[in-house]
């Protein structure tokens, strides 16, 4: 198969590219950075250097592909996250239509079933709607849970404050996903495509916010590590104090509040996958400890 991958050599796209190349697929990787060309070629893939803002470039990169993997690169600098997500998705959609691609795998998120109230994940809702509107194209929306990888952002918080803090916690449930499990699921959907549009949830482990610090704490020698919950307003102020714009902080607070209320996972709870991912929180804790001890 000929497959085009977006996301450069990011955490998911790199693992996905390596997996597909090892399976003997012809893979083209899109990157905006010229210096990534050598790294992409070293994996055994073809580099397509250009901007995802350029629909013409995307069309050329998609042409001839049996399938494409589309993801929206994070851009927390964008004041309106929904507009940003929709703009990139529209460029993808134009390129998909003009190139004649018939199979698309989209990196979405759990919570993308809701059109409001989930912070920047509302953008994923709109991306799904844009792709679903395409004619004669099979689309799978991969909806992973909370990335384990995002827990690495709290390393500094633990070192400085001695605890984890957010506007969700305690017995709030957190469906979490390993980047490796996500990449494996995407590869499966590309190689063994369905003829109809569908949603696939990818979750590696499901814990409460009280259970997460217990596991991470043991790994870093802090068995009494706690996850404390603070009001939305206090979290907003703290984020802005760290240099985050008011607009971005508001989006992040809304996302955390959706986690606290269980909104993010309500559809996931109704459509849980028959099998969980292979990488458990205890496995990720080893990676977390390495980052913490640097």
Descriptive account of the structure:
- The protein has helices at 11-22, 37-43, 55-62, 81-99, 122-132, 155-161, 179-191, 211-220, 232-241, 246-261, 266-270, 281-292, and strands spanning 2-5, 26-31, 46-49, 67-70, 103-107, 138-144, 146-147, 164-166, 173-177, 198-202, 205-208, 227-229.
- By secondary structure, it is an alpha/beta fold.
- Helix 4 (81-99) links the parallel strand 4 and strand 5.
- The strands form three sheets. The chain has a seven-stranded parallel beta sheet, sandwiched between helices.
- The chain is built from twelve helices and twelve strands.
Percent of residues in beta strands? 15-25%
Helix-strand topology string? EHEHEHEHEHEEHEEHEEHEHHHH
Structural class: alpha/beta
Number of strands: 12
What's this, in brief?
Helices cover 44% and strands 18% of the residues.
Could you outline the blueprint of secondary structure elements for this entry?
Elements: E1 2-5, H1 11-22, E2 26-31, H2 37-43, E3 46-49, H3 55-62, E4 67-70, H4 81-99, E5 103-107, H5 122-132, E6 138-144, E7 146-147, H6 155-161, E8 164-166, E9 173-177, H7 179-191, E10 198-202, E11 205-208, H8 211-220, E12 227-229, H9 232-241, H10 246-261, H11 266-270, H12 281-292
Parallel strand pairs: 1-2, 1-4, 2-3, 4-5, 5-6, 6-10, 7-9, 8-12
Antiparallel strand pairs: 9-11
Helix pairs in contact: 1-7, 3-4, 4-5, 8-12, 9-10
């Amino acid at each position: 198969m000929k497959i085009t991958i977006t996301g450069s050599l990011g955490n998911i796209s790199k693992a996905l590219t390596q997996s597909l190349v090892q399976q003997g697929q012809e893979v083209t990787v899109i990157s905006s950075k010229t210096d990534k060309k050598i790294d992409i070629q070293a994996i055994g893939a073809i580099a397509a250097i250009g901007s995802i803002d350029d629909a013409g470039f995307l069309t050329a990169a998609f042409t001839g592909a049996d399938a494409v993997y589309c993801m929206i690169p994070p851009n927390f600098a964008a004041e309106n996250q929904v507009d940003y997500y929709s703009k990139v998705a529209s460029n993808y959609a134009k390129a998909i239509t003009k190139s004649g691609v018939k199979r698309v795998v989209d990196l979405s998120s759990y919570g993308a079933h809701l059109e409001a109230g989930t912070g920047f994940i509302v953008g994923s809702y709109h991306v799904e709607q844009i792709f679903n509107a395409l004619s004669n194209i099979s689309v799978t929306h991969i909806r992973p849970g909370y990335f384990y990888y995002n827990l690495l952002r709290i390393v500094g918080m633990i070192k400085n404050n001695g605890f984890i803090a957010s506007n969700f916690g305690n017995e709030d449930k957190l469906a979490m996903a390993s980047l490796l499990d996500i990449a494996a699921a995407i590869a499966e959907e590309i190689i063994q495509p369905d003829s109809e549009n569908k949603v696939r949830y990818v979750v590696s482990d499901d814990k409460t916010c009280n259970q997460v610090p217990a596991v991470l704490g043991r790994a870093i020698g802090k068995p009494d590590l706690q996850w404390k919950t603070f009001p939305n307003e206090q979290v907003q102020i703290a984020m802005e104090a760290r240099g985050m714009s008011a607009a971005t902080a508001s989006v992040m607070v809304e996302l955390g509040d959706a986690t606290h209320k269980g909104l993010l996972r309500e559809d996931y709870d109704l459509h849980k996958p028959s099998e969980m991912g292979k990488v458990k929180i205890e496995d990720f804790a080893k990676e977390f400890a390495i980052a913490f001890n640097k």
